[in-house]
Amino acid sequence: STIYVLNGPNLNALGKREPGIYGALTLADIEAMCVAEGARLGLEIVFRQSNHEGDLVDWFHEAGEKAAGIAVNAGAYTHTSIALHDAAKAIGIPVVELHLSNVHAREEFRHTSLLAPAAKGVICGFGADSYILALNALKTLTHPTR
Ligand code: DQA
Predict the structure, then answer these.
(1) Which end of the chain is more exposed for a tag (fewer CB within 10 A), N or C?
(2) 76 lines ligand 1 (CB under 6 A)
(3) CB–CB of 115/85 below 8 Å?
(4) Could you tell me if the CB of 134 is within 6 A of ligand 1?
């Protein structure tokens, strides 16, 4: 089955953006990790990034038609976007919210996620491994073994 891995604003700058917080890997490096993990898990990965909220809304709907689940790092839209919350609710596939950093250990304004109540669950704080953990969660959700 197909999993959409969606990335929001500023994640195109990974590698040079606050590497002390977000790590040295680029988004292309993380895409390669996700494709490799997808192959291991038997999941086809569609990997995208946009700085525009509406693109992410459109991709949620597209995934709802074409995919078995979504792993999303919505960046700062996590904390602001009712539209992404509504999009997650509007589709019939599981959404796993993920973050590179531990948002709960950072500024107060990162402690609230408007997306999380519409998500199946949230993974944060494991750097690029948050993506790998999210894919494994989606594998289990879409191919339950118990
Ligand atoms: C982030 C955390 C967000 O608070 C921030 O706005 C980002 C990245 C993360 O992956 O740690 O852009 O989603």
Answers:
(1) C
(2) yes
(3) yes
(4) no
